[in-house]
């Protein structure tokens, strides 16, 4: 969702427009991260994430959730949004997160190749789409599925 450019952290390209789209169309979404609460609070403040996310629905490493590739984080995120995992879409940039989404039975997994080469994800059968920029997403798929979980 974000990346470091020099000394600055920035949201991934076109992430703001994509998050606006989700909110404007009442498409449920959340964050599922293995970062601790300190990092989550930092990112909420740094990127004004309250604008796009219900903070109470964000799932983070609280010491009780097994790390990715265990499916728990995505199962909890889907539960928080009252959705079946098969009706969810996950956008994920880490191989362990892709494996966690697959293990959770997520309906569609989109690999965000913003920091890793596209080739890393090409041979992963669970990856339905590879993007480097949120503008590349076909937004119509978010109307077909009930949900988008951002990992």
TrEMBL record:
UniProtKB keywords: Hydrolase
Secretion signal, residue range per the UniProt entry: none
InterPro entries for the chain: HAD-like_sf (IPR036412), HAD-SF_hydro_IA (IPR006439), HAD_sf (IPR023214)
Keyword Isomerase: no
Domain of life: Bacteria
Keyword set includes Endoplasmic reticulum: no
Any one GO molecular-function label of the UniProt entry: phosphatase activity
Record's protein name: HAD family hydrolase
